[in-house]
Amino acid sequence: MMKRFIVSVSLVLFAAAFSSVFAQATPAGAGTPPGGGDKNLADDGIKMRSVEMERIKREAQTAEAASFAPINTNISAKFPQIKEDFEGLQILEAAIIKAYTTGKTIDYGLIETSADGISKKAKRLDTNLFAANVESKENKSQIDKSKEDAEKKKSIKDLIVGLDTAIGEFVSSKFFGNIKVVEPEVAIKTRTDLLSVLRLSEQLSIAAQQLK
Rounded to whole angstroms, how far apart are CA atoms 96 and 106? Predict the structure, then answer.
């Protein structure tokens, strides 16, 4: 069953930890158990390696975001268009779902024009949100995937479900919570979702046109 996504989600996580206190104190002169020092050194080594791996991962994500999803430096001036297209994606997708699920016959003409509208809005959103050229190496892989998916001949239902999911992921991204401070992994996922919206809307338009 297809369903709409909530545009903004706030999650607050609380964690509480409790430790037991032994009634009996450590005997005087007990000192460090045999091998205890070696264990502490090993634990410290594991922690240091974990921190270093996390640092390397973070740097890789930052570099990928800078290449694939750099934020448009003029994004504030584009806010009116961003807001219009952000809301328009959801309105047009709702029209597609209604055209497919209600009425005696499926209105493929409305599905085609709505999918075209989503494609145009997705392209403008990509230009307004991100500074990287849409013909980047990553986008080429998206185009290749689009051709591969087309060869598989997805049903129009599958395309609608996929598009609905992609739009839901995009509009509920943390990216829109605070555009001034965007984590690298958030920027990468947001642009990936937006390119999926673009790819699926174009496929859906073609599929609906063939069924008119």
Answer: 10
The tokens of 155 are what? 């049903």
Q: What are phi and psi of 130, to 5 degrees?
A: -120, 150
Name the amino acid, one letter, at 170. F
pTM of the model: 0.68
- Domain-located, residue 13: no
SS3 193: helix
> Total domain count for the chain?
1
Q: What is the mean pLDDT of the chain?
A: 77
- pLDDT one-digit tens code per residue, 83-92: 999 999 999 9
- Tell me the β-bridge partners of 130: 71
Domain that holds residue 184: 64-211
Domain presence at residue 186: yes
Q: 71 forms bridges with which residues in the sheet? A: 130
Helix-helix angle 184-211:108-129, to 10 degrees: 160
Rounded to whole angstroms, the Cα distance separating 126 from 129 reads 5
Determine the residue type at 24: Q
Residue 146 lies in a domain: yes
> What per-residue string of b and e applies to 58-81 under the rule 16 or more CB within 10 Å gives b?
eeebeeebeebbebbeeeeebeee
What is the C-alpha to C-alpha distance for residues 68 and 191, in angstroms, rounded to an integer?
Answer: 8
Residue 57 in domain: no
Q: Which tens digit of pLDDT belongs to each residue from 45-81? A: 667 767 667 666 666 777 777 889 999 999 999 999 9
